[in-house]
Amino acid sequence: MGVNVDSLETKVTQVLALCRHLSEETRQLRAQVAELEAERKALTDKIATARDRLESLKAKLPQE
Fold it and tell me: Tens digit of pLDDT per residue, the chain (64 long)?
């Protein structure tokens, strides 16, 4: 019976270690997602600014 308890304890310890590892990985991935979303927003804003500037320059071109 003692062998079964030791085996169970080992398995529980392994599961807990895996849970901790997965929790840390999840935290890191969420941080990465937040960083990438911020980068995406910054790039989207830059594109919008460039588009506005190009439209402004186009409007200033002489008509043919």
Answer: 667 988 999 999 999 999 999 999 999 999 999 999 999 999 999 999 999 999 999 999 998 7
Number of residues that this document lists for the chain: 64
Return the SS3 of 43.
helix
Interatomic CA distance for residues 53 and 46, integer angstroms: 11
Q: Which of 47, 45, 43 is nearest to 35 (CA)?
A: 43
d(CA 64, CA 60): 12
Give the global pTM.
Answer: 0.71
